[in-house]
Specification:
single chain, alpha+beta, Small Protein B, Chain: A, two-stranded antiparallel ribbon, 4 helices, about 40% strand
């Protein structure tokens, strides 16, 4: 009876245009209570997020969790604070090894609910050149055109 429920909170679609994604890793993220509430109301932006590894721990930078309230008990909401990723040691070592190579970076792909936990998908990415971006757009257009042709061929 234990079913897996996945529900997208937000997704970073520009990443697929800018980078080749070579590997995806699922990660937990350490959040405060008000950040979880803002995720429930889809008030999260991960457009400019990136992941950095320091002191054998991975952190997410530039993730914006917006709240309706201005203050809570003893402080002010920090909407763009650095958040810790919950990864295993071998995954962190793998990230460090890949980032050390020329041209690789670690980016945030999407944020989603997995049962009652908020999870983050991060990707090992390599930047695209301008001609790669053009080729990707041409292939997308061609695939759309193929689908239209096939649709009209089988309908008639």
């Amino acid at each position: 009876m234990n079913r897996l429920i996945l529900k997208k909170i937000t997704q970073n679609t520009r990443i697929y245009h800018k980078y080749f994604i070579e590997k995806k890793i699922e990660s937990g993220i350490a959040l405060l209570g008000w950040e979880v509430k803002s995720a429930r109301f889809n008030r999260v932006a991960i457009d400019n997020c990136y992941v950095s590894v320091c002191n054998a721990e991975a952190y997410v930078y530039n993730a914006v969790f917006q709240s309706n309230k201005i203050q809570y008990d003893n402080g002010i909401y920090n909407t763009i604070r650095v958040r810790k990723l919950l990864l295993k040691k071998h995954e962190i070592l793998f990230l460090m090894e890949k980032v050390a190579q020329q041209g690789y970076t670690v980016v945030v792909l999407d944020l989603y609910w997995k049962n009652s936990w908020i999870k983050l998908t991060i990707g090992i990415a390599k930047g695209k050149k301008q001609h790669d971006k053009r080729n990707a757009i041409i292939m997308q257009d061609w695939n759309r055109e193929k689908m239209r042709i096939m649709k009209y061929k089988y309908v008639k």
